[in-house]
């Protein structure tokens, strides 16, 4: 799948109107017995002996870690408070989330910054991190993660004025393949964050 920045920036709003975004579906369930078998198969496939002492519990631990990742429950993410505030920019930054890249099934982590301008509803502070973790707990692309976080903040707060910046480090780039540490920065700018240079700059200053 090819994602251009134009595609990312245009998603979630059409002609200035908020596009209806469906709430995310509940977390997937893993097939735990199958994961246990696969864990053992994996050890065999790489030439290991699943009966050696150090590996006896490894298929179970491996299955557990997949279950923990896939069946992650973010808790309540949508507590909002009614307010007359319509002119404050709120930013929450430095939220580190871990995810798995969908190409290599290797971890990546991102520092997530979210900004929005409330229009009648403010979102509970802790909910930004809950939302970020919620979408990180699936096989991901960094760009899609940012897009889904923006969609969800927008859906819950009812405003299209949402911005999300992610700075990620991907183990599939740093520990294998090209083996080059580096930071990937991706951004989703919606509404006034996209349309107004000053607002975008203010957001970027506040999160830097
Ligand atoms: N844009 C984007 N690319 C990613 C992300 N995670 C991993 N990738 C990249 O996905 C690409 C997959 O490329 P392929 O050529 O199919 O796979 P590969 O042969 O393992 O590629 P190399 O990593 O270059 O060795 C690589 O360039 C990865 O760095 C992500 O979140 N966003
Ligand atoms: Zn990868």
From TrEMBL:
<dbReference type="Pfam" id="PF01227">
    <property type="entry name" value="GTP_cyclohydroI"/>
</dbReference>
<dbReference type="GO" id="GO:0008270">
    <property type="term" value="F:zinc ion binding"/>
</dbReference>
<feature type="domain" description="GTP cyclohydrolase I">
    <location>
        <begin position="40"/>
        <end position="207"/>
    </location>
</feature>
<dbReference type="GO" id="GO:0006729">
    <property type="term" value="P:tetrahydrobiopterin biosynthetic process"/>
</dbReference>
<feature type="binding site">
    <location>
        <position position="104"/>
    </location>
    <ligand>
        <name>Zn(2+)</name>
    </ligand>
</feature>
<dbReference type="GO" id="GO:0006730">
    <property type="term" value="P:one-carbon metabolic process"/>
</dbReference>
<feature type="binding site">
    <location>
        <position position="101"/>
    </location>
    <ligand>
        <name>Zn(2+)</name>
    </ligand>
</feature>
<keyword id="KW-0378">Hydrolase</keyword>
<feature type="binding site">
    <location>
        <position position="172"/>
    </location>
    <ligand>
        <name>Zn(2+)</name>
    </ligand>
</feature>
<keyword id="KW-0554">One-carbon metabolism</keyword>
<dbReference type="GO" id="GO:0003934">
    <property type="term" value="F:GTP cyclohydrolase I activity"/>
</dbReference>
<comment type="subunit">
    <text>Homopolymer.</text>
</comment>
<comment type="pathway">
    <text>Cofactor biosynthesis; 7,8-dihydroneopterin triphosphate biosynthesis; 7,8-dihydroneopterin triphosphate from GTP: step 1/1.</text>
</comment>
<dbReference type="GO" id="GO:0005525">
    <property type="term" value="F:GTP binding"/>
</dbReference>
<dbReference type="GO" id="GO:0005737">
    <property type="term" value="C:cytoplasm"/>
</dbReference>
<protein>
    <recommendedName>
        <fullName>GTP cyclohydrolase 1</fullName>
        <ecNumber>3.5.4.16</ecNumber>
    </recommendedName>
</protein>
<feature type="region of interest" description="Disordered">
    <location>
        <begin position="1"/>
        <end position="30"/>
    </location>
</feature>
<dbReference type="InterPro" id="IPR001474">
    <property type="entry name" value="GTP_CycHdrlase_I"/>
</dbReference>
<keyword id="KW-0862">Zinc</keyword>
<keyword id="KW-0479">Metal-binding</keyword>
<keyword id="KW-0342">GTP-binding</keyword>
<comment type="similarity">
    <text>Belongs to the GTP cyclohydrolase I family.</text>
</comment>
<dbReference type="GO" id="GO:0046654">
    <property type="term" value="P:tetrahydrofolate biosynthetic process"/>
</dbReference>
<dbReference type="InterPro" id="IPR020602">
    <property type="entry name" value="GTP_CycHdrlase_I_dom"/>
</dbReference>
<dbReference type="InterPro" id="IPR043133">
    <property type="entry name" value="GTP-CH-I_C/QueF"/>
</dbReference>
<keyword id="KW-0547">Nucleotide-binding</keyword>
<dbReference type="InterPro" id="IPR043134">
    <property type="entry name" value="GTP-CH-I_N"/>
</dbReference>
């Amino acid at each position: 799948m090819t994602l251009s920045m134009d595609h990312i920036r245009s998603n979630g709003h059409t002609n200035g109107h908020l596009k209806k975004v469906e709430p995310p579906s509940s977390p997937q369930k893993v097939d735990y017995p199958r994961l246990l078998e696969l864990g053992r198969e994996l050890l065999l496939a790489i030439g290991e002996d699943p009966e050696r002492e150090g590996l006896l519990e490894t298929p179970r631990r491996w299955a557990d870690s997949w279950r923990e990742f896939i069946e992650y429950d973010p808790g309540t993410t949508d507590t909002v408070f009614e307010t007359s505030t319509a002119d404050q920019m709120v930013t929450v930054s430095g939220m580190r989330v871990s995810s798995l890249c969908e190409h290599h099934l290797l971890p990546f982590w991102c520092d997530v910054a979210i900004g929005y301008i409330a229009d009648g509803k403010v979102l509970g502070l802790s909910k930004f991190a809950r939302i970020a973790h919620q979408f990180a707990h699936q096989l991901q692309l960094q760009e899609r993660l940012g897009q889904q976080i923006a969609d969800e903040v927008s859906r819950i707060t009812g405003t299209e004025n949402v911005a999300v910046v992610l700075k990620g480090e991907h183990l599939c780039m740093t520990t294998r393949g090209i083996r080059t540490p580096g930071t990937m920065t991706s951004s989703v700018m919606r509404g006034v964050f996209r349309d107004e240079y000053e607002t975008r700059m203010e957001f970027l200053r506040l999160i830097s």
